Amino acid sequence: MMGCGGNDTYSSPAMSSNPLTDTLVKTSDISYNGQYTLIADNKQVCLWNNKIIQLKLPCLIGKAKDYIEIVKIAKNNDYFVTSNRVSVRLYSIKNGKLIGEWSLQDHIINDIALSKDSDVILLGFRSGKVSVINPFTKAMATYQKHKLDINSVSISDDGRFAFTGSSDKSAIYWNTITGKTIHRFEHKSRVNHVSLSADHKIGFSLDGISDKKIWDLQIGGLISELDSHQRFITINDSKISVNNQLLLTGSPKQTLQLWRITDGKLIAQWQATHLKTRSSVLSVAFEESTLLSLTSDGILEVWQYPPQSTINQP
Fold first, then answer.
1. What share of the chain is helix, strand, coil (3-state, %, to 5)?
2. What is the distance between the alpha carbons of residues 247 and 237, in angstroms, rounded to a whole number?
3. pLDDT per residue over 220-261, tens digit each?
């Protein structure tokens, strides 16, 4: 199979495919280790245990599920959040208990990120502002980090560092405790998507036209750019592997792609199962020995890693 950059890429059929809902999914998240999938559709918000394909908790119904457009799972698998873009709710995965709720009045939330232990909730607003919330101490700080809409946010495991992308054509790596900018990266157009590695050493940012760059955040320098000649790439979700070697992305074109961080080469790609013509890959995740994806059709699929020789090939 030929990749976007003209190189041979690995591909294989899905190892398993499981429909989790028969309703179009509005938003979703797969936990970083692939254990859970959180889905919001027009009927309910449901948390699934991917290991046994069973509900982990009773689904949220009634007002708790109304107009939910953002959901996120904490990396330690202890908490999850839901948002209708004007308020945020934090729930316990252990028992489904509501931990807290925050309403932001006139601020419209475009994206949310959680630290590993959920002791930091990062909110990116259409105003270009961000809020850093500790849901357990109730502490909150708000910073004006961008001039225009913040479209995407990501946070380090310890909650101390964030990476945010904005319509002001910039991606900013900054300290959530002080609000101080560490590195600012300029793009050709609005930055639609960012992701940050767990140890905050690697960042990925994608703009609306052509920039698709992987950054060394310790020095503020470019590592590589995704080796794709395609313009106007859209990515719904991305994850950086624990060892900082690989970038996994999911797109609106039913495509799951795996990129090598050192040189930006596409080394594997898969076509997700879809029931509708415009089904999208909404969420992706690394598992210990497999990869996972969830489509807007509500289909959870498991994929085999490419051979190690493909990953390590220069």
1. 5, 50, 50
2. 10
3. 999 999 998 777 789 999 999 999 999 999 999 889 999 999
